[in-house]
Design a protein that fits this description.
Elements: H1 2-52, H2 58-71, E1 75-81, E2 87-91, H3 108-120, E3 124-125, E4 129-130, E5 136-143, E6 153-159, H4 160-167, H5 170-175, E7 176-182, E8 185-189, E9 201-205, E10 212-218, H6 220-225, H7 230-239, H8 244-288, H9 298-315, E11 319-326, H10 329-336, H11 338-355, E12 361-366, E13 369-375, H12 380-392, E14 398-400, E15 403-405, E16 409-416, H13 423-439, E17 445-447, H14 450-469, E18 475-484, E19 490-501, E20 505-507, H15 509-519, H16 522-539, E21 549-554, H17 556-559, H18 564-575, E22 582-586, H19 595-608, E23 611-617, H20 624-629, E24 634-637, H21 639-642, H22 649-664, E25 668-671, H23 677-685, E26 690-691, H24 702-711
Parallel strand pairs: 16-17, 19-21, 21-22, 22-23, 23-24, 24-25, 25-26
Antiparallel strand pairs: 1-2, 1-6, 3-5, 4-5, 5-6, 7-8, 7-10, 9-10, 11-13, 11-16, 12-13, 14-15, 18-19, 18-26, 19-20
Helix pairs in contact: 1-7, 7-8, 10-11, 13-14, 14-15, 16-18
């Protein structure tokens, strides 16, 4: 009887202990899986952001990858591989230099796996491997789009020791010896001091393609909480018959205490589980909602849209996806600070919620873009009515930093099923329609049509070609001479960028320059132009072109580069070119965006000895304030006024006024697009200083400009203006 009672209590205690340890192992496995997948989801969001923006330049990549690494320091490296699986960009670079340029499809099985991920758009991962930059780790590959639209992988690199060590909490480190196996291979083990080898729990962990197994053994501190003195007491009681009753009473009391202790421990464990579930719910909300507005974010919207599509399929109904983007939002950020931009987004969210309550699902995609889902519209007219209501609600001003601000929006709309049959297609096509709405002048809406998809693909292809153009040596410079209208001497030349792609022929600057400005690639192209112009001036030294002044266009986007002046100065030193031989023609955006910063850059250029002029004066946002506040030396009259001056009296009045005003301010004047002798004669009569156009010379490659200068050596010469 004593042995039976002892055995029963011992088995019950062991079972409770094993059950608690099994629960702990399972809980640890699920929590590690969840935390690991949070980091994988961060990679997915970066890939989606890349795809949404049609690609990154290197600086945008660095900023986004750097922010991601700050949020999730467990990454050994965050990388981008191109379509050929070669690592092109890495963040951080320190400690990862060996991986740059490495082809991640390092054997046939990896290539097949990556080819499959590329085709299907699925995430892929390696087992534990020896990393190129050293150490044992796993690598996760997140494709940017798929199939023909594939743009490479966003890659997350994890050191196994660092990853698993960081995912185990201090409490778990104190109470448990945790080992992780990949197959039979031990890949991780924490401190193994004071471990009981008699009890073990295990749990499988398979978040992606790899499969790991966790083994958990308790340390003495945890084991003590689940130990019981009852079996020893029962054995002692069996040998002391004379004190049987006393021992039975004692055992009963001890059993009650032990049961209460176990119940208390179980309640504490349940409390911890509840607490962790609450944290999980909070974390889930943070992951799926925008922190500023509380609206669902892009990933949540995509999941919600996918479910809505299934409902629409079953019910044979329509649904509409609307992308709403604020017009000139960047101008508000630049002039009233980013906090004012945040205030505007929050205020607009309140208006949308009030206006569209219970009618439409709203999410914030990021920045100034909102995503909306309208289910079961009766007709296109209902979609149009809502678009008009959205635009109408913005007519009332917003108060930001005690100032009244008026803002408009553009809306892109894609309707299921004509506008796409998947969440990805509908969002992408609505974005294409949004681009068309903005191109049409903003403050309007546009529905997606099938032709837009081809147009969007063409823009993506053009962007890819343009990024390859420098490496393939497809770019060149052309030079259009400027002429002194009184003497007809050649005084200088404007530098123009030309692009010849063997497969397509010459591609117009009107196609690729706006795209380069939109994607930020204009910074790299602009510095290429300055470098090539300086190199050309160096090559012309000692020839009739020795002292020619070259005019180079400079956009507001290029002025965003804080190192711009320093880079230009380095090029002057490298090619030994004096600043007086370069002139920068400024576009109108310079005078309406980042004004203080732009002014600082321009003053630095003036101090170095460069000359600045305003390009296309008289169109767009042209203002006399430019001339008062900016260090300008010259005004260029836009060709649209020159082309009609012989027949249009208004154009003649504008030209006369610009020339008179410029001379009163001690500025010189250049007329663009002069094609007839009558135009040149009129401009000369009104006092215009210089002109350029086909009447004098079309844009010429360097060798033809050299021939022109040589042929005029004994007559008209190309001289410094």
């Amino acid at each position: 009887m004593t042995l039976s009672l002892w055995s029963r209590i011992d088995i019950e205690t062991s079972e409770r202990r094993q059950h608690a340890l099994d629960y702990q192992a399972e809980f640890l496995s699920k929590r590690i899986t969840r935390q690991f997948l949070e980091q994988v989801n961060a990679l997915k969001r970066l890939a989606a952001y890349w795809d949404h923006n049609g690609g990154f330049n290197k600086e945008t990549w660095r900023k986004n990858a750097e922010e991601l690494h700050k949020d999730f320091p467990n990454f050994k490296a965050i990388e981008w591989t191109d379509k050929n699986y070669v690592i092109q960009w890495i963040e951080p670079m320190a400690g990862n230099e060996q991986a740059l340029g490495f082809n991640v499809a390092f054997n046939e099985s990896r290539r097949r796996a990556l080819d499959s991920a590329r085709a299907q758009g699925d995430i892929n991962s390696t087992p534990v491997i020896t990393l190129q930059q050293g150490g044992q780790g796993v690598v996760v590959y997140v494709p940017i789009s798929k199939g023909e639209n594939f743009q490479g992988f966003i890659v997350g690199v994890f050191l196994v020791e660092q990853l698993l060590g960081s995912l185990i909490s201090p409490r778990e480190e104190e109470h448990f010896h945790v080992r992780v196996y990949e197959g039979d291979k031990l890949i991780f083990s924490n401190s193994a001091t004071d471990v009981s080898p008699d009890i073990t729990a295990a749990a499988d962990w398979k978040p992606l393609q790899f499969s790991w197994r966790l083994s958990v053994q308790p340390k003495s501190g945890w084991l003590h909480n689940y130990s019981s003195p009852l079996p020893a007491f029962v054995m002692s009681a069996g040998t002391i018959l004379s004190a049987l009753l006393a021992w039975v009473c004692y055992l009963a009391m001890s059993l009650g205490r032990q049961r209460r202790s176990l119940l208390s421990a179980n309640e504490a464990l349940q409390s911890e589980v509840a607490s962790r579930q609450e944290v999980e719910q909070t974390l889930s909300h943070v992951i799926t909602h925008d922190a500023l507005t509380g609206l669902p974010n892009r990933s949540f919207f995509q999941e919600d849209l996918a479910q809505a599509i299934l409902r629409a399929q079953r019910a044979n109904k329509y649904l509409a996806v609307m992308l709403v983007d604020l017009d000139q939002f960047k101008k508000i950020n630049d002039t009233l600070t980013h906090s004012a931009g945040d205030q505007l987004v929050v205020a607009l969210t309140k208006r949308f919620n009030t206006l569209l309550e219970n009618e439409i699902s709203i999410a914030r995609a990021g920045g100034d873009e909102f995503m909306m889902l309208l289910e079961n519209p009766e007709s296109v007219d209902e979609v149009i009515a809502i678009a008009n209501r959205i635009m109408a609600c913005m007519k009332q001003p917003f108060t930001l930093n005690d100032e009244e601000v008026f803002i408009t929006c553009s809306i892109g709309i894609a309707v299921y099923p004509e506008g796409g049959v998947s969440a990805e297609d509908l969002i992408r096509n609505a974005d294409a329609a949004l681009y068309r709405a903005k191109a049409a002048g903003r403050n309007g809406y546009h529905f997606y049509t099938t032709g837009m998809h081809a147009e969007a693909l063409k823009r993506l292809e053009l962007d890819r070609w343009l990024r390859e153009a420098i490496e393939r040596n497809e770019l060149s410079l052309a030079f259009q001479p400027k002429v002194n209208l009184k003497t007809r001497d050649y005084t200088g030349a404007e530098v123009l960028l030309r692009w010849y792609r063997p497969e397509q022929g010459f591609i117009s600057p009107a196609e690729f320059i706006p795209l380069a400005e939109e994607t930020g690639l204009i910074k790299e192209l602009g510095m290429w132009v300055v470098r090539r112009a300086c190199q050309q001036l160096s090559e012309w030294r000692g020839t009739p072109l020795s002292h020619i002044r070259l005019a180079i266009n400079l956009s507001a986007i290029q002025l965003e580069d804080k190192e711009l002046v320093h880079k230009i100065d380095n090029l002057l030193r490298e090619f030994d070119v004096p600043p007086r031989q370069l002139e920068f023609e400024l576009t109108e955006e310079v005078f309406i965006q980042n004004i203080e910063s732009n002014m600082a850059h321009l003053n630095e250029l003036i101090k170095m000895g460069f000359r600045l002029s305003i390009d296309d004066f008289g169109v767009g946002y042209s203002s006399l304030a430019y001339l008062k506040h900016f260090p300008i030396s010259c005004i260029k009259i836009d060709r649209s006024f020159v082309s009609q001056l012989e027949t249009n009296a208004d154009d003649r009045v504008i030209i006369n006024a610009v020339i008179a005003m410029a001379h009163n301010l001690n500025l010189s004047v250049v007329a663009e697009g002069v094609e007839t002798e009558a135009q040149a004669a009129y401009l000369q009569k009104q006092g215009c200083d210089e002109a350029q156009g086909y009447l004098f010379a079309k844009p010429l490659p360097p060798d033809q400009l050299y021939k022109l200068a040589t042929s005029l050596r004994n007559g008209t010469s190309l001289q410094q203006g």
